[in-house]
Amino acid sequence: MDPDAYERFMGRFSTPLAPGFADFAGLGTGQRTIDVGCGPGALTTVLVDRLGVRSVAAVDPSPQFLAAVKARHPKLLARLATAEALPFEDAQFDAAVAQLVVHFMADPVAGLREMARVSRPGGIVAACVWDHGQNGRGPLAVFWQAAQELELVVEGETSRTGATKGELAELFARAGIRATEVAMVSVDVRFGGFEEWWNPFLLGVGSVGTFVARLSSDARAELRARCSAKFPTGAFTVPAAAWAVRGTPD
Ligand SMILES: C[S@@+](CC[C@H](N)C(=O)[O-])C[C@H]1O[C@@H](n2cnc3c(N)ncnc32)[C@H](O)[C@@H]1O
């Protein structure tokens, strides 16, 4: 996936989410932390700023994203890997964190179990996933609502793993991680106007981008008009919220 396109599409939500998620995870100076599914580095950058580059490691299965995060932080320990097979010894880190990744893992329980394995006993495992439940508050909620109204889809992202109330904590439990805190982390993202919100949907990022690209031009125009009608003219704010869980490996 093109990191620049990702930044323009999802980065506008994940970048402002990262400081709040890092606060929630309770990471302090000197804590050696691994960012799992780092992408181009929204959370990694916050970790590097707060903890220092020597205390941070990052993994992602996408070579393009890994190259992007390395370009941002040349001294970062960055590896090409999935959460399910972390290339680190046991108990190497004080904390393992994953922002907006669990729902993309092929096996979320195995991924979380690996995050616990590489964390020291009593350390921190934390993850967050956009709230895609019924009346969900994911950043794309308006888009999926419009697509459903036009009967272009049956459901949006409501079936993504871990994305409804209580689900992420349950995955932690199944991975043997005792959840100590569950919260919502929220962001408000400001847009100068509708075009600024809509245009990145045409960049082909993720399943949404693929979905938009496959629509006929008439259906795409109809969807665009339906979305536009849901926002005021001029600038507006899109709120988004993610379920966040913090736990301690046994
Ligand atoms: C929505 S992005 C989040 C990226 C970054 N954490 C952020 O907040 O911007 C999801 C990321 O998960 C990565 N990913 C997908 N499957 C994964 C897996 N099994 N293990 C780890 N990361 C995975 C993708 O390559 C992508 O970088």
Poorly predicted ranges (pLDDT <50, ≥5 residues)? none
Series of secondary-structure elements, N-terminal to C-terminal: HEHEHEEHEHHEHHHE
Overall outline: globular
State mean pLDDT (0 to 100 scale): 93
User: What is the count of DSSP helices, taking H or I runs of 4+ residues?
Assistant: 9
**C-alpha end-to-end distance:** 36 Å
The domain count comes to 1
Determine the CATH superfamily: Vaccinia Virus protein VP39
Please give the CATH architecture: 3-Layer(aba) Sandwich
- CATH class identity: Alpha Beta
Task: Please tell me about this protein's structure.
The chain has 250 residues and is α/β, with parallel strands linked by helices. The protein has one domain (3-138, 157-188, 240-249): 3-Layer(aba) Sandwich (Rossmann fold). The protein contains nine helices and seven strands; from the N terminus they run αβαβαββαβααβαααβ. A seven-stranded mixed β-sheet has the order 3-2-1-4-5-7-6, sandwiched between helices. Helix 2 (42-51) links the parallel strand 1 and strand 2 (56-60). Helix 1 packs across helix 2 (42-51). The longest helix has 23 residues, at 3-25. The protein is globular, with a radius of gyration of 18 Å. The mean pLDDT is 93. S-adenosylmethionine binds at residues 10, 14, 36-39, 42-43, 60-62, 65, 82-84, 99-101, 104-106, 111.
